[in-house]
Every structure is written in C-alpha cells, then in structure tokens.
Specification:
- With 130 residues, this protein is mainly beta.
- It has a 3-stranded antiparallel sheet, with no helix packed on it. Strands 2-3-4 form a 3-stranded antiparallel sheet, with no helix packed on it.
- The protein contains no helices and 9 strands.
- The radius of gyration is 16 Å and the shape is globular.
- It has strands spanning 8-13, 22-28, 33-41, 44-49, 63-72, 78-91, 98-100, 118-122, 125-129.
C-alpha cells in the first residue's frame, strides 16, 4: 500500500490574491506538477486544482463572475436576471462550466466539483498543500 503525504508550498504574497481575485500557480510536487487556483472571496481563501470536472479544462483560469439569478414575481413569472454579488463563480474557458468559489461545486450539477486544495495564509504569505 502506498501512502502519500501532502506537502506545503509557499505560492505567493497575500496581496497577490485581491478580494474577488485569483492567483494561478504551477507547483513542482516532485513526481508531478500541479496547477492550483487560489481565490479570495468574503475575506477567505479557497484553492482548487486547475482541472475542470467536466472535461479537464483549465477551470481556474476562466472568468470570475457573480452568479446570475432569475427574479420571479409572486406568480412565478420571470422579471429577468440579476447578478448575485453574494455568490462568485469561476467559469471554465473550455465549455462554460461554472463553479461556486466557496464550494468548488457546479450550481446545477453538484456531482461535478473541483478538487479542493488546502490553503492557509500566515505572515502575509499564501501556502497550499498538495
């Protein structure tokens, strides 16, 4: 049985990941290179492997957008769409699959999710474990 232990890597300064922004880095983890996207939303950091669950595209390098919601009246008729600034999505540039930055899950297909990476922030530096 082979066990692997995650290693921690310094990937940059905290100010390189602004609110509603991202930092994408390639990490030489020895036997493999892992590309990770680090996002800041609501003052917290979230990190995911840069591999779309749909077809393997570079999801973390896609557009960052607020979630689009449909507004409904009391009779459930559409009043059009609005941007929900309380939910941020990343959109894979290959096929438009969206992922909630705080969960890594696709909003309509929760069985599709990005692989989460442990991320920490200390003394002005960002570290991920892969």
């Amino acid at each position: 049985m082979t066990t692997t232990t995650a290693r921690s890597f310094d990937v940059g300064a905290s100010d390189e990941v602004p609110e509603r922004g991202r930092l994408v880095v390639a990490i030489d983890a020895g036997a493999r290179t892992v590309t990770v996207g680090v996002f800041r939303f609501g003052g917290r950091l979230y990190a995911y492997e840069n591999v779309c669950a749909h077809q393997g595209g570079p999801a973390c390098q896609g557009r960052i957008v607020s979630r689009v919601r449909e507004r409904l009246d009391a009779a459930q008729r559409s009043l059009g769409t609005v941007f929900d600034e309380d939910t941020m999505h990343i959109v894979c540039p290959w096929h438009g699959f969206e992922y909630d930055v705080t969960t890594g899950r696709h909003p309509g297909r929760p069985d599709f999710a990005l692989r989460a990476v442990t991320v920490d922030e200390e003394d002005g530096r960002v570290r991920v474990s892969v």
